[in-house]
Specification:
The complex is a heterotrimer. In chain A, about 40% of the residues lie in helices and about 20% in strands. By secondary structure, chain A is an alpha/beta fold. Chain A has 2 domains: about 140 residues, D-Maltodextrin-Binding Protein, domain 2 (3-Layer(aba) Sandwich), CATH 3.40.190; about 90 residues, D-Maltodextrin-Binding Protein, domain 2 (3-Layer(aba) Sandwich). In chain A, the strands form 3 sheets. In chain A, strands 1, 4, 5, 6, 7 and 13 form a 6-stranded mixed sheet that branches. In chain A, strands 10-9-11-8-12 form a 5-stranded mixed sheet. A two-stranded antiparallel ribbon of chain A has the order 2-3. Chain B is an alpha/beta fold. Among the domains of chain B are: about 40 residues, no CATH class; about 35 residues, no CATH class. In chain B, about 45% of the residues lie in helices and about 15% in strands. Chain B has a 3-stranded parallel sheet with strand order 3-4-5. In chain B, strands 1-2 form a two-stranded antiparallel ribbon. A two-stranded antiparallel sheet of chain B has the order 6-7. In chain B, helix 3 packs across helix 4, helix 3 packs parallel to helix 5 and helix 5 packs parallel to helix 6. In chain B, about 25% of the residues are buried. Chain C is mainly alpha-helical. Chain C has 8 helices and no strands. Chain C starts with a helix and ends in a 6-residue tail after the last helix. Classes of the chains: A alpha/beta, B alpha/beta, C mainly alpha. Chains in contact: A-C, B-C.
């Protein structure tokens, strides 16, 4: 009996090991995704709630810059776009498990991610910006003037990293909030003086005409290096190249520019 | 031994005959069908030491359950279902009256005393009209006070000429009620005969010793 | 967004919760019986797989099982079965998981019935099937009712785990309000839904327990 139990435990552990190993091994060979999505007649796009990139309008339809651009690309691919809400923490697992076909949700390019996914060309700049109240426009004019300001950012975000990396700001009063929009709320409530968040979101929320954030403005000061958004495909996927050429077409005929204007993102487009 | 005759346990060897009919033969290779086995079993009834009543049923339902299930096998059951069930219930009520429980028909076993429960269990066994009724130490789970009512019921049944085999430690009772006594020691028959002979005329040493401890 | 609109949106999430709860019970209750009989079988051929199955399912977290069922077909076999139906992945995992737990409750319930009950059935000429259904089953039901109600109420709350594969049940529905509207209270508000539903279940089980209270074993 003891032997049998031991055998079963060994078997179970071996199974777990094989599974773990198999999921770790990066597949470098060519992935025939183009044929795969054509056969399925749809591209499943992994997204989260992220205004103005991907969000649901009142009727439940997914809209936003990425969503509309994706619709256009899918139209050219001859497939339908299917938006699938995912957990941002498990986006890579979703992609490798083929439960989604790409990550298209303001996906920031970085070196770590490049090892795991195949990025399309960068289509949007995302920088960290400092948001202050319009009333303080004369008080805060550059980074040096923020020396006594109470700062806020989303905890564990790029914005927080940027604050801690800036010599004159790293010892300021600082609060790490749950989300970027919460950080903006602190500035409105005057519990903080300046928030460091993504430009994409800041521009959208501040410029939303009937929104609660119109009393805020973006300070014209650079706090961190620019980042870029791109679409993530499976490593080695032949879709990357195809979608890149389609994006070039859409850029040439002004489609991308039109969509960007609609969502107040014209300044963020990558133009080559 | 009782458990072998009732086929709750399988004997290692030998032959069991009930009413001239072989119900078990260890040397015979042919197996009895389930149906045959059950028919043999129904020749005899068994009253357990621990009653084993069905707790979720009333007294009346305990007595009628098995009879009703058996009645379903009758060829004309479907047409006469109501009539058959009524018959069975009336019969069960008569039996319960004989064991003195007419007023407890709709009680549940947990509401009864041990003695009453054992009487229900006797009624339940009798409802199947066995040729012989076996008692497996029917009073050893009961208070001495309650023992009396069971013995009274058995005496009454004896006077109605019911064939019964009783395993018991109640020596005085065994002497008084039985027509034949077998004294068993460690699974072997020690002495056997009319009660008068076994207890009074020439009791064996082992029996004397037992009676001494008993008194 | 108004309180009413948010309540309505949470109800949509709660519907997914209830659907998973109901369908899991529907399939896991009978499947548990099969596994219980497997575990109790005298033949190793049946009992060993059953017992191993129960050990693995009870020995690993439900959340891990959901992740494995959902991702493994695509990652390991390049065949994403649940691409179009994430709920199905959740349902299969829940049915398997809860069948294992139910089977152990059934087994305990059946084994708690004294041998004398089976013997009484046998000497009264009842077949094994008759004995099980007419004599044993009702007693088993009474015995397992308290542990079953406990397990079923746990199931209500375990449904919240399916958000690891991004299914919008009630808690995920509430979490989306944080991302979209920057409001936190809907998340805490979901507690009211769970409380009310578990309250109804508790009343229901109390009612059944009372119904079976007319006798004692």
């Amino acid at each position: 009996m003891k032997k049998k139990v031991l055998a079963i435990i060994c078997l179970a552990l071996a199974g777990i090991a094989v599974f773990t190993l198999a999921s770790c091994m990066g597949k470098e060979e060519k992935v025939e995704d183009l044929a795969y999505i054509t056969a399925n007649k749809k591209l499943v796009i992994g997204i989260t709630d992220f205004e103005p990139i991907d969000f649901q309008d009142a009727s439940g339809k997914w809209v936003g810059f990425d969503a509309e651009l994706a619709e256009k690309v899918c139209e050219k691919l001859g497939v339908s776009a299917q938006f699938q809400l995912i957990n941002w923490d498990t986006k890579i697992e979703e992609l490798n498990g083929k439960t989604i076909d790409c990550i298209w949700n303001g996906f920031t390019v970085d070196a770590d991610r490049q090892k795991k996914v195949s990025f399309s060309k960068e289509y949007m700049i995302n920088k960290q910006v400092i948001v202050i109240r319009k009333d303080d426009a004369s008080k805060y004019t550059d980074i040096a003037s923020l020396a006594d300001a109470a700062l806020v950012a989303e905890s564990a975000s790029v914005g927080e990293k940027a604050i801690k990396a800036t010599e004159t700001l790293k010892d300021n009063t600082y609060v790490g909030q749950a989300s970027q929009s919460d950080a903006l709320k602190e500035v409105i409530a005057k519990t903080a003086d300046a928030a460091v968040i993504d430009f994409t979101m800041a521009a959208y929320l501040i410029n939303k005409e009937d929104g609660d954030f119109t009393s805020l403005m973006i300070l014209d000061a650079k706090i961190a290096d620019d980042e870029y958004y791109a679409i993530g495909f499976r490593k080695g996927s032949d879709l990357t190249e195809k979608v890149n050429s389609l994006l070039a077409d859409l850029e040439a005929d002004g489609t991308i520019k039109a969509i960007a204007e609609k969502y107040g993102l014209s300044d963020s487009l990558v133009t080559k | 031994m009782l458990r072998c005759i009732n086929q709750l346990e399988t004997a290692d060897g030998g032959i069991i005959r009930v009413n001239e009919k072989t119900v078990f033969d260890a040397s015979s290779s042919e197996k009895l069908t389930k149906k045959q086995k059950r028919d043999n079993q129904l020749q005899v009834g068994l009253v357990f030491q621990s009653f084993n009543l069905f707790p979720q049923y009333t007294v009346l339902a305990n007595v009628t359950l098995a009879v009703k299930e058996l009645a379903k096998e009758r060829p004309n059951y479907k047409e006469n279902r109501r009539q058959i069930n009524e018959e069975i219930e009336n019969n069960a009520k008569k039996i319960l009256e004989r064991v003195g429980l007419s007023d407890k028909l709709s009680s549940y076993p947990c509401e009864l005393s041990g003695g009453q429960q054992q009487r229900v269990s006797i009624a339940r066994a009798m409802a199947l009209e066995p040729k012989i009724l076996f008692f497996d130490e029917p009073t050893s789970a009961l208070d001495p006070e309650l023992t009396g009512e069971i013995l009274k019921v058995i005496k009454k049944l004896a006077s109605e000429n019911m064939t019964m085999v009783i395993v018991t430690h109640e020596m005085a009772f065994a002497e008084a009620v039985s027509t034949k006594v077998i004294f068993m020691d460690d699974g072997v028959i020690n002495s056997c005969g009319k009660p008068q002979e076994v207890f009074r005329l020439n009791p064996t040493e082992r029996l004397k010793e037992f009676l001494r401890n008993y008194e | 967004m108004s309180f009413f609109e948010i309540t309505l949106a949470l109800f949509q999430g709660f519907f997914v919760t209830l659907k998973l709860f109901g369908l899991t019970l529907l399939f896991a209750l009978p499947l548990g019986f099969l596994i219980a009989f497997g575990s109790m079988s005298k033949y190793k051929l049946f009992s060993l797989p059953s017992k191993t199955f129960v050990w693995i399912i009870r020995g690993t977290p439900l959340m891990l099982q959901i992740i494995v069922v959902f991702y493994v077909p695509g990652i390991l076999f390049n065949y994403p079965i649940f691409k179009d139906d994430r709920f199905l992945a959740a349902l299969i995992t829940f049915v398997i998981n809860y069948a294992a737990y139910f089977s152990e409750i059934y087994r305990g319930g059946i084994e708690s019935i004294p041998r004398g009950q089976y013997e009484a059935g046998q000497v009264l000429g009842l077949t094994k099937t008759q004995t099980f259904f007419k004599v044993v089953l009702m007693q088993v039901v009474k015995n397992i009712l308290p542990p079953m109600s406990n397990e079923i109420i746990t199931l209500v709350k375990d449904t919240s785990l399916i958000r690891v594969i991004a299914i919008v049940e009630i808690i995920k529905a509430a979490e989306r309000f944080i991302a979209k509207e920057a409001i936190l209270w809907p998340l805490f508000y979901t507690g009211v839904f769970y409380l009310l539903f578990c309250g109804v279940l508790t009343l229901l089980f109390n009612y059944f327990e009372k119904k079976l209270d007319y006798y004692k074993t």
